[in-house]
Amino acid sequence: MKRDLFDELKEGFNALQSVREGKITLRPHVLEKKPVPSIHDETSRTIIYNGVPPQCHVSH
Predict the structure, then answer these.
(1) Please, how many CA atoms are within 13 Å of residue 6, restricted to the half-sphere of its CB?
(2) Inter-residue contact 18 to 24 (CB < 8 Å)
(3) Which residue from 9, 29, 13 is spatially nearest to 21, judged by alpha carbons?
(4) Under 8 Å CB-to-CB from 24, ≥6 apart: which residues?
């Protein structure tokens, strides 16, 4: 079955509105905080230029 992301977003925003109006209570979720990974110069160059010819990028 193919997902309909727009319908899922609408459902989420409708639920959020209902919570704010006090009509329903959503189950809370606790997320684990993860450290931000460090990106080195070579890694960032790979990410920026991967698959795109260098002449397409603007030099700063």
Answers:
(1) 0
(2) yes
(3) 13
(4) 15, 18
Contact 15, 26 (CB under 8 A): yes
36-54 residue pLDDT tens: 877 666 665 666 666 565 5
Q: How many CA atoms within 13 Å lie on the side-chain side of 13?
A: 6
* Cα 52 to chain centroid, rounded: 23
- pTM value > 0.85: no
Instruction: Report how far residue 33's alpha carbon sits from residue 56's, in angstroms, rounded to the nearest whole number.
Output: 37
Q: Token digits for 1?
A: 């079955």
